[in-house]
Each structure stands twice: as C-alpha cells, then as structure tokens.
Amino acid sequence: MTNLDRETLESKINELLPKYNCGACGFKRCDLFAESILCGEDIRKCPFLLKEDFKLNFDELNNLLTENKIIVCKSTKNIDKSGNAEFIGLIDGYNADFLLDPLENEHSCRETLLITSPLAKDLKINDYIQYRPLGCPLPHFAKIIEISHGMHVIHVEGPCHRITGEKKDYINVGVAIVVAFEGVVSKGKMPEIGKTVRFIPTHCMMQKVHSGVIVEAEGNRVLIEGIDLKVW
After folding, report:
1. Model pLDDT for residues 26-56, shown as the tens digit of each residue
2. What are phi and psi of 185, to 5 degrees?
3. What CA–CA distance (Å, rounded) separates 127 from 167?
4. What pLDDT, on a 0 to 100 scale, did the predictor assign at position 3?
C-alpha cells in the first residue's frame, strides 16, 4: 500500500476516521481532519481513535502514514524562533531535531548492526535477516549490504514487506544492537559534527525518535553513532 497518490491516501485516511464530525480535533468535519493529517497533523487529536473501540483504526492509520512516509509534525503556529517546523515522534511524542531520509536511490536509511548471535559469523552480503533491535518491541527484516570488522550494514525491508511475503528465507539472529545510522537530513536543521541529536528515520515503522552523535557530515549526508532509543 506504499507510495499512494495524495487523493487515494486522503480517501483511505478518511475511511478510517470515526465519521462523527464532532469537532473535538479542531476541524468541523472528519474529511477536513483527514486532509490535515496529510500535512502532518497528529491523529491523536481525535479522542475517539484513542478509545478501545477504534484501536484497529488507529493502528491501521499509523501503519498507513508510516508506509507512505507521512511524518507527524506540529502545526505552523508552533514553529521555532528560527522558523523551522518541529517534528514529533508518533509513538512517544518527543521532539526531534530532523528527519533522516535514505541515501539517494536507496529505500531505507543504512543501519549498522552488532549481531551477537553465533550465526553472525556465517552471514554474507545479500543475506536476509530477521532481528529485533535492542529496545524496540517490533521484529525487523533486512538485507545485508556490507560487512566490515564484525559489523553488518543493512537496509530495512520490513516488517511490512516480510508480512506481505515479498521476501523468503530470513535468518533469525535474535536481538541486535543498532550502533549507527547513515542517511540524508531532509527536514530540519543540519547538525554539527560532535553534537548529540534527536532524529526520526523516515522508514521507522513506529516513527520513534532516536538519539545519537554526529560523527560525519558532508553536505546533507550524515553518519550517526551511539544510537539510543531512550531520549532524555
């Protein structure tokens, strides 16, 4: 369901809203709220989506927005003094400094994993693996694109791709530690080398704010190490 055109995506969002037109979200009708969601409005502004009766709708909306790379941000009335929009993680509500996009012609940010499983020594470039990042509740599925000094650089392929059966023969390596992200700063202020930052990888299924330290920066391309899902 990824890469939907704007009209189709807005229609699908509207279908998942309660249709009560109650105005609690700040909009007179649900279809107007659906249009604003495309611009980054927080779906949690609808109080009914937070109720148990609409949990499936909430989860489906969250997945739909993630798959189509719609990142929740605060409205323009909350822009900072420099005029930059603030970005907020959907699952945790933390503010991020910027969004991290994949490198050119790549479909996800590069992640460097420390895999402690004994299976790690037998892994090869182009192998597909299943793993759970330390601190994350979701299983991930990925393709290994580089191996260097015991570290494995991967492209994330799911969980969505795995669930839909697009790939086969994933090797389950258990819990892995994400030690680095590499990608492009697409929205937000370009960070300086040595700075600790908060960022949202745009391919992250949970749209969760990550933290780390900028160790390389060239143009808008950055390498972030010391990755942590705890944000202080």
Report:
1. 777 888 888 888 777 788 888 888 888 888 9
2. -75, 110
3. 11
4. 67
User: Is 96 in contact with 87 (CB distance < 8 Å)?
Assistant: yes
The answer as to whether 122 is a domain residue is: yes
225/227 Cα distance (integer angstroms): 5
Mean pLDDT of the chain: 84
CB 13 within 8 A of CB 61: yes
Q: How far apart are CA 64 and CA 67, in angstroms?
A: 5
Q: Assign residue 143 a region: left if phi > 0, alpha if psi is -120 to 50, beta otherwise?
A: beta
Domain presence at residue 165:
yes
Q: Which amino acid is at 25?
A: C
Q: C-alpha angle 167/171/174, rounded to 5°?
A: 125
From CA 164, how far away is CA 174, in angstroms rounded?
A: 21
184 and 108, same structural domain? yes
Is residue 111 within 8 A of residue 229, CB to CB? The reply is no
**pLDDT tens, residue by residue, 160-176:** 555 445 556 889 999 99
Q: Has this prediction a pTM greater than 0.70?
A: no
The continuous run of DSSP H or E covering 200 comes out as: strand 196-201
Same domain, 162 and 212: yes
pLDDT at 224: 98
Do the beta carbons of residue 151 and residue 84 sit within 8 Å? no
* Owning domain of residue 14: 6-70
